[in-house]
Amino acid sequence: MSPQHLHLLLDLLAQPTAPFREEHVIACVGRVLEQANIPFFADPVGNLVIGAASKADYLRRIREKSTEPLRVFIAHMDHPGFHGVEWLSPRRLKVLWLGGAPVKHLAGAAVWLADSHGWAGSGALRNVALVASKRTIHSAEVVLDTPLDKPANSLYGGFQFRAPVWRRGKKIYTKAADDLVGVFAIVATALALFGAAKRRASPIPFIGLLTRAEEVGFVGVVGHFELGWLDAKRRPIVCVSLEASRTLPGAIVGKGPVVRLGDRRTVFNPDALKVLADLAEHVLPGKHQRRVMDGGACEATAATAYGFPAIGISVPLGNYHNQGFEGGPDCAHAAGPAPEFVHLDDIAGELVLCRALMQPNLPWGDAWHKQRLALRKNLRSYRKLL
After folding, report:
1. Domain containing residue 203: CATH number
2. Fewer CB within 10 Å, N- or C-terminus of the chain?
3. Does the pTM exceed 0.85?
4. Looking at residue 199, what is its pLDDT?
5. Cα separation of the two ends of the chain
6. Pairing mode of beta strands 118-130, 110-115
7. Residues 71 and 192 in one domain
8. 333 and 223, same domain (yes or no)
9. Residues 110 and 225 placed together within one structural domain of the fold
10. What is the model's pLDDT at position 200?
11. Same domain, 217 and 128
12. d(Cα 157, Cα 18) in Å, to the nearest integer?
C-alpha cells in the first residue's frame, strides 16, 4: 500500500462515527474529493454520491445508453455506537445504543464521546441493559471522566481503546474498521479512476455511494433506493457492496480479500459473481478467498431486495462489532469489548479487485459463456455412452 493510501486509510479510521452521526467521515471524504477535483454531492438522505456533481448529473449517468454496466460501489460510514439521551447528573449521561455490540464484561468499559465539533470526552459504561434477545446493548449510563457542558442529545460515542487507530506490523487496530475500510476503498478507487480520466474518451461507469445508518437496517441505502433515481436507468446497473466482515473459517484475516458469495440473508447475483470470481482468479491468483460471509448481512441484500444485481467484496474483520472473538491488544476479556482489526494485504487486494471490476468489455451479458463451452465439450466426449 502506498504512503498516500495508508495516510488516507488511517485518517478515515480515526474519525468518530455512529449511526446517524457520520458528519466527520463525510467531512474527511469531502476534503479529499475536493482536493482531487472529483465530483460528489449529498443525496436527500445525506448519503454521499461520488462520481457525479448533482442529482441531474447522476441521472444523466444512469440514462446513458450503454451496454457497459454502471458499477455502483456501496459502503457505509457508520459503526455501532450510542447516542446521548439525557443528563442524569453533571457526570452521568443516559445513552441509547444503536447496532451490534458485545454483551459481556461491559461494566466499567471505556468509551469515547464526540459531537459535531469533534472529540468531546471519555467515560465508562455502567448500568448496562441488553435488548430482549440479549444479542446487543439497549441502553446504559456513561460516567464521564470530566463533566461536559453540552446538550445530551448532541453527544454520541463508542468503545474506547488505547487510540482511535494504531498499527502493529501489517495489522491495523481501530475502534471502527466496519465499514470505514469500505469507505476508504471507494475513495481510493475514485482517486485512481478520476486521476486517469483525462486519458478517457468516455465517462467513467463508476458511482460511489457512501451511506448512513447501515447498522440499524440499511437505512441510508434504502433511503437512496426509495428516491427512485435508479429506476430511470437506460443501462445495466451492478451494485458492489464493500464490507469489513466477520472473520470465519475460509475467510481469514491476512489471506486476501473475500469474493463474497452471499451474506446471512441471501446469495448474490450468479452472473455478476462469475465476473468477479474470474477476475479474482486472474488478478489475485492464490491471494483471495471465496465464501458466503454469513456472520452478518450487508447492503448487497438491500440492493437485491430492490431488484438490482449485487455482488460483494469483503475484507476479513477481527473482533467484529468490537466483540472480542479473536482477542488481541486491548481485549481484556474473551467476548468483551475489543478493537476491530484488519490486514493491510487484504485491503490492498480489495483495491486491486475494485480496479479490475472497472475494466471495459467484461462479459457482464454472458458471464458463463466459457463454462458453457466446456460443458458442451464434455457432453460431446461422453455422447456415445448415452
Report:
1. 3.40.630.10
2. C
3. yes
4. 55
5. 55
6. antiparallel
7. yes
8. yes
9. no
10. 58
11. no
12. 7
C-alpha–C-alpha distance, residues 271 and 294, integer Å: 20
Domain boundary among 137, 161, 185: 161
Indicate the number of domains in the chain.
2
Distance of CA 1 to the CA centre of its chain: 19
Q: How far apart are the C-alpha atoms of 324 and 212, rounded to whole Å? A: 25
- Say what the pLDDT of residue 195 is: 85
Task: Establish if 227 belongs to a structural domain.
Answer: yes
Residue 125 · residue 141 · CB < 8 Å: yes
Instruction: Give CA–CA dist 26/257, Å, rounded.
Output: 25
Does residue 177 share a domain with residue 313? yes
pLDDT along the chain (386 residues), means of 10: 94 98 98 97 98 96 94 98 97 98 97 98 98 97 97 98 97 98 98 77 88 98 97 94 96 97 95 97 97 94 96 98 96 96 98 97 94 96 96
